[in-house]
TrEMBL record:
One of its GO terms (molecular function) is oxidoreductase activity. It is an enzyme of class 4 (lyase). Pfam families: CER1-like_C, FA_hydroxylase. Belongs to the sterol desaturase family. The chain crosses the membrane at residues 179-208, 318-341. Residues 448-618 form the Very-long-chain aldehyde decarbonylase CER1-like C-terminal domain. This is aldehyde oxygenase (deformylating). It comes from Triticum aestivum. It is a multi-pass membrane protein. It catalyses: a long-chain fatty aldehyde + 2 NADPH + O2 + H(+) = a long-chain alkane + formate + 2 NADP(+) + H2O. Keywords: Endoplasmic reticulum, Lyase, Membrane, NADP, Transmembrane, Transmembrane helix. InterPro entries: CER1-like_C (IPR021940), Fatty_acid_hydroxylase (IPR006694), NAD(P)-bd_dom_sf (IPR036291), Sterol_Desaturase_Related (IPR050307). SUPFAM superfamilies: NAD(P)-binding Rossmann-fold domains (SSF51735). One of its GO terms (cellular component) is endoplasmic reticulum membrane.
């Protein structure tokens, strides 16, 4: 059976080029200098501005609903929004293209509409009356019809196919539904204009209010005060709530109204538990996570790679995009604000085998970790986060990247030593990081060259490799640090650890393990065909076309992880840094010890096997 009429968008296959459909209106506006007050085509600028504001309204609601540090306690559906839903709703704004075409057609068909006054108060009264008398009951009837078996299967099931309502879900429907909705939305405006009371201000006010309420109803966060409907019972029938509409999305048998529950009351479809559930959701419930990954911001650009800025952008691996450049000054201001006032806050979450995993962010950027005067403040933030996790009953806190820097806090030992009775386990995750790097080295390798060789990870990798009789050229100027590591190796393995002080020593070695930044000049010493394995943060830039570059150590979370909807920095979907995965392994295995300080080389294979056992796979 073919697709039903108007059940799919004609421009589905255009991708981002669908925005070319705005081209005729934009071109006409530019050609006629429509922004000039005396231009007869000024209506084009107003129309384009209105639809830009409409899109911005939904984006603002999406940002708000993803601000988990503000909304997590009042979320109605507790599951996270996963990549599948984000992809399905990617073109949520298709309806705006349809409706701007409808509006432009009306303005061309009725030229008098192009010259409306700025405001007319009488038009507001007419529009409000027609909304209540026509738009609301007709929407209710149409919505009930779309829930009939025939129309639901062919049209409305798409809108209900996502489990978690979001502001973008409001736009996720078929062309037929948005055609009907557009006509119903136009009724009050058409009536006001027919009565000679239409105005530009009314069009903006009514349409943006309509979008505001639609996005609010789908935001999945309860907003209205719990006692409001007890104090003013009549409001129950005048305005719906996010809980009210979410009941419709989950049950599909009640609460069909547009914005006014009065019509559900009259139609006998009002769920009697709506306001009790609304009260409970407003009161909130703070779920305690079992596992926390404590991250930090990399830089100003990367700070925008979070769901509460742009959900779709955060669902793809981070890369600098042109559209970020105008937002950079705002992000810079945000950096100063969080530096001055913010505490650790939640960014995202997912569920794994029935347990809640959250990602928190220390409000510090990468460069802060290299400022001597910032050290104590950063450690205070991390310590407060660990103690907060302790009070919440979190089982494991895994430290990301610079949060476990050896020079900062000894790889987490500072906190464990200061609080010896911690029940929450502090984990740097570097045991699995080392395992990932080691398992990337091809079998049969007999020699490697390593920078950052005396670091925590460098030490563990060197000691592991020498046990395998692989010669390790350790690049370091400190003979004392080299000898200290060499003495940790068994007597028969010490010969495989070799100190080198110049990059020329590695000219013939094709396996480089990079734990310290390499300049283009230093990379030139590598022979063609060399592969650079990396554990340096940030990763080195690939200047050599005749060499290959590995990414930072990472692993793919198990397939049964639910609610994953954002990428971890530049990693692909479902992949997390090895230190994150290491913390997950620590939690899943129920290890009772802290994993801080020096890496236990004997546990590298143990942790690797445990990761594989739990379905955490190499990338």
């Amino acid at each position: 059976m073919g697709a039903a009429f108007l059940s799919s968008w004609p421009w589905d296959n255009l991708g981002i080029f669908k925005y070319v459909l705005y081209g005729p209106l934009v071109g006409k506006a530019l050609a006629s200098r429509a922004w000039e007050p005396a231009s007869p085509d000024r209506w084009l600028c107003l129309l384009l501005a209105l639809f830009a504001l409409r899109a911005f309204t939904y984006q603002l609601w999406s940002s708000y609903s993803n601000m988990l540090f503000l909304t997590r306690r009042r979320r109605i559906v507790r599951d996270g929004v996963d990549f599948e839903q984000i992809d399905k709703e990617w073109d949520w704004d298709n309806f705006l293209i349809l409706q701007i075409m409808m509006a432009a057609t009306a303005l061309y068909a009725f030229p008098s509409l192009r010259h409306l006054p700025g405001w007319n108060t009488g038009g507001l009264a007419v529009a409000a009356l027609l909304h209540v008398a026509a738009t609301e009951p007709l929407f209710y009837a149409a919505h009930r019809a779309f829930h009939g078996a025939h129309l639901f299967a062919r049209y409305h099931a798409l809108h209900h196919s996502n489990k978690v309502p979001t502001p973008f879900t409001a736009g996720f429907a078929t062309p037929l539904e948005h055609l009907v909705l557009g006509l119903l939305m136009a009724l009050p405006l058409a009536g006001a204009c027919a009565a000679g009371l239409g105005s530009v201000g009314l069009a903006f006010a009514y349409v943006l209010s309509f979008d505001f309420l639609r996005a609010m109803g789908h935001c999945n966060v309860e907003l209205f005060p719990g006692g409001l409907f007890r104090s003013l019972p009549f409001l129950r029938y005048l305005i719906y709530t996010p809980t009210y509409h979410t009941i419709h999305h989950t049950g599909k048998k009640a609460n069909f109204c547009l914005f006014m529950p009065l019509f559900d009351r009259l139609g006998g479809t009002l769920d009697p538990e709506s306001w009790e559930l609304q009260r409970k959701n407003r009161a909130g419930m703070d779920e305690a996570p079992d596992f926390v990954f404590l991250a930090h911001v990399v830089d100003v650009m990367q700070s925008m790679h979070v769901p509460f800025v742009m959900r779709t952008f955060a669902s793809t691996p981070f890369a600098v995009r042109a559209f970020l450049l105008p937002l950079w000054p705002i992000a810079l201001l945000f950096m100063f604000m969080v530096w001055a006032w913010s505490k650790t806050f939640i960014i995202s979450y997912y569920h794994l085998r029935g347990k809640l995993h959250q990602i928190w962010a220390v409000p510090r950027y990468g460069f802060h970790y290299f400022l001597p005067f910032a050290k104590d403040g950063i450690n205070d933030q991390i310590e407060l986060a660990i103690l907060r996790a302790e009070r919440m009953g979190v089982k494991v806190v895994s430290l990301a990247a610079l949060n476990k820097n050896e020079a900062l806090n000894g790889g987490g030992t500072l906190f464990v030593n200061k609080h010896p009775d911690l029940r929450v386990r502090v984990v740097h995750g570097n045991t699995l990081t080392a395992a990932v790097i080691l398992n990337e080295i091809p079998k049969g390798t007999t020699e490697v060259f390593m920078t950052g060789a005396t670091s925590k990870l460098g030490r563990a990798i060197a000691l592991y490799l020498c046990r395998k009789k692989i010669r390790v050229m350790m690049m370091t100027l400190s003979t004392e640090r080299f000898q200290k590591i060499q003495k940790e190796a068994a007597a028969e393995d010490q010969q495989y650890l070799v100190q080198v002080t110049k990059f020329q020593s590695a000219e013939q070695c094709k396996t480089w393990i990079v734990g310290k930044w390499l300049s283009p000049r230093e990379q030139r010493w590598a022979s063609p065909g060399t592969h650079f394995h990396q554990f340096v943060v940030p990763p080195i830039l690939g200047f050599r076309r005749d060499c290959t570059y590995g990414k930072l150590a990472a692993m793919r979370l198990p397939k049964d992880a639910r609610g994953l909807g954002s990428c971890e920095f530049s990693l692909e979907r479902g992949v997390v840094h090895a230190c994150h995965a290491g913390g997950v392994v620590h939690f899943l295995e129920g290890y009772a010890h802290h994993e801080v300080g020096a890496i236990d080389v004997d546990r590298i294979d143990v942790v690797w096997e445990a990761a594989l056992k739990h379905g955490i796979r190499p990338v």
